[in-house]
Design a protein that fits this description.
heterodimer; A: 96 residues; little secondary structure; Alpha-Beta Plaits; two-stranded antiparallel sheet; 4 strands; globular; B: 488 residues; alpha/beta; TIM Barrel; Nucleotidyltransferase, domain 5; 2 domains; 7-stranded mixed β-sheet; 5-stranded mixed β-sheet; 15 strands; binds iron/sulfur cluster
Chain lengths: 96, 488
């Protein structure tokens, strides 16, 4: 069962470089995991590599579609102090 | 407190640069061996003199990072932003080589090419070393340098030495893993995300090992530290001693940049940045021979041009894509232009200033956009250059950043507040020289005992400072001035 990347991805290439299955490529907007190629790193590493290096919270989903890094889990920023969000509840950010 | 490096020399702390009498910018290089001095004398980041005349550029080929720092937000990318780690265009090695050639041909003063990010260059070894290998072959007259967090430095020390990279900058913010745990929430190491103290310990160990390995291989190493009040400020003198003991030729202390709108951990949790005076005090106590880095501008990682001046917009991808550069012709032109500059620089060995009336030692500030002249409007200044002046000498101390209070006639909503930023930045100065200044700010400065002047617009900085100093001294306006000692 594959992992997947959400629109929080900031296109930093880190996951692509460490994926043992060459499952990750750059898409039109964001990096993308080929579900047919992703092995969840089974047989290579104890932890999924993309999920071990991705610096952005809520960018990766596990096989069940659950976010792997909820807000605060990587940056330590308490939810009360998070960046302003737009009307849909998404953090405001500037795309490259 | 556990220190990973214990070989620190415990010799008594040396007096600061000022006390040891290295006054002119030339002398700041005087402690270096000849060969080393030759290497850095036309490097705009190292030589106070050279940075007015030579240029450097960074190419952003390294997007991935393998650690998280509490002063960095990987989501943030804004072309108005001007701090390390932030760039707007990630280049492939091929695009980077094109860009370097285009810039080197257009700006013959460009002597240095750096890879610094936006992530960590050594977390992107393919992209980084492909770029270096090609540049070493195709643009052999350009010096190469690289900045890293040091996590993978031991792995790549040999490769760095192979490409003849002139110098490496390692960011080392602490030697104590407990302090490290408050700066680095995690690292990616050995195929795992590692957190907390354990992560900091691995990072610090690799930084110091990497530093030693580079020094053994004859590569120049500079160490940068970010000063974070209450976290590592009291610890940085120790860092300075240890890294110099291990062979770093420069230690550069930079102020934390932490604004809530950057969305960093420090920005959002209210971690404050050091004041200019705090930074200067620390730089004074660490910098026995490091005065040449005081003018560091914390340039953008894709900055092109002279320090403090960003010409990146002239060389965007679409503009260089179809550009054919005849590099051998460019190289010949570069050689001529650079030789001419070196000739002027060497000829202009500061004539000993005519004996002047002696007076108290004061801090003076200058608003300048570069080129070594006073050419910035007071209200537009994003930073002031600081100098320590007495009757005999003018010693550059570096730049101090301020918030803009006026960006144009139509948008000065918080003029009062923003002017406060300028006044705060100058609080310990006796005078400020700028190209132009409004009446309001003038009055407020005078009320604070800071003498403003617009009379030296477009004049060379050091001469102007000395002249204005003598004028103030003659008018008896320096008598009651807070001196450098008083503010320290
Ligand atoms: S889980 Fe492993 S195999 Fe799957 S995309 Fe991530 S790194 Fe590649
Ligand atoms: S590591 Fe995360 S942010 Fe970076 S490209 Fe992969 S999914 Fe996107």
């Amino acid at each position: 069962m594959p992992l997947s990347i959400t629109d929080r991805c900031v296109n930093c290439y880190a996951c692509q470089d460490v994926c043992p299955s060459q499952a990750i490529s750059r898409g039109a907007q964001q990096f993308h995991i080929d579900p047919a190629a992703c092995t969840e790193c089974a047989g290579h590493f104890a932890d999924p590599q993309c999920a071990s290096i991705c610096p952005v919270e809520e960018a990766l989903l596990d096989a069940d579609g659950k976010t792997i890094h909820p807000p605060g889990s990587l940056t330590g920023i308490p939810s009360t102090l998070r960046a302003p969000r737009n009307h849909q509840g998404d953090p405001l950010r500037v795309l490259p | 407190m556990e220190l990973i490096a214990t070989s620190a020399a415990t010799e008594p702390k040396k007096a600061g640069c000022h006390a040891s009498g290295c006054g002119s910018s030339d002398d700041s290089l005087a402690h270096l061996p000849d060969a080393l001095r030759e290497q850095v004398q036309n490097h705009p980041c190292f030589s106070e003199k050279a940075h007015h005349h030579f240029a450097r550029m960074h190419v952003a080929v390294a997007p991935a990072c393998n650690i998280q720092c509490n002063y960095c937000n990987r989501k943030y990318d804004c072309s108005n932003e001007s701090r390390p780690g932030v760039v707007s265009e990630v280049l492939s090695p091929d695009q980077a080589v094109r860009k370097v050639k285009a810039v080197a041909a257009a700006i013959p003063q460009m002597t240095v090419l750096g890879i610094a990010g936006p992530g960590d260059p050594l977390a992107n070894p393919e992209r980084t070393f492909t770029t270096f290998r090609r540049l070493a072959e195709e643009t052999p007259d350009i010096k190469l340098c690289v900045s890293t967090n040091g996590l993978r430095l031991p792995e790549f020390a040999d490769e760095i030495a192979r490409y003849n990279i002139q110098h490496v900058t390692i960011t080392i913010n602490c030697l104590d893993p407990d302090i490290g745990a408050r700066i680095y929430p995690w690292i990616y190491w050995n195929h795992r995300r590692i957190r907390g103290r354990k992560a900091a310990k691995i990072l610090i160990r690799n930084q110091l090992k990497g530093l030693e390995m580079l020094v053994e291989r004859g590569v120049l190493v500079k160490v940068n530290s970010v000063m974070i009040p209450g976290v590592n400020d009291a610890h940085l003198e120790e860092v300075s001693r240890v890294v110099k003991d291990k062979g770093a030729f420069l230690h550069n202390v930079m102020p934390l940049i932490a604004e809530a709108e950057h969305g960093t951990f420090y920005g959002l949790t209210g971690q404050r940045a050091p004041s200019g005076a705090e930074l200067r005090r620390l730089q004074d106590s660490c910098a026995d021979s490091m005065s040449m880095m005081r003018h560091c501008r914390q340039c953008r990682a894709d900055a092109v041009g002279m320090l403090g001046e960003d010409r990146g917009q002239e060389f965007t991808l679409d503009k260089i894509e179809h550009l054919e550069v005849d590099y051998s012709a460019a190289m010949e032109k570069r050689r001529r232009v650079q030789a001419a500059i070196m000739k002027t620089l060497n000829a202009a060995t500061d004539p000993a200033p005519a004996p002047q009336a002696n007076g108290p030692e004061v801090l003076m500030a200058v608003a300048s956009k570069g080129q070594g002249v006073i050419n910035e409007h007071f209200g537009h200044a994003r930073e002031f250059l600081l100098y320590r002046v007495d009757g005999n000498q003018v010693e550059p101390l570096g730049a101090r950043k301020v918030d803009l209070y006026c960006t144009g006639s139509s948008d000065c909503p918080e003029e009062e507040n923003r002017l406060q930023g300028h006044l705060d930045a100058l609080a310990d100065c006796a005078a400020v020289l700028c190209a132009k200044i409004g009446f309001g700010p003038w009055q407020q400065l005078e009320a604070l005992g800071i003498q403003p002047s617009g009379a030296y617009a477009y004049e060379p900085i050091e001469e102007a400072l000395m002249h204005f100093y003598q004028e103030l001294l003659g008018d008896g306006k320096l008598e009651s001035q807070r001196g450098v000692q008083a503010s320290a």
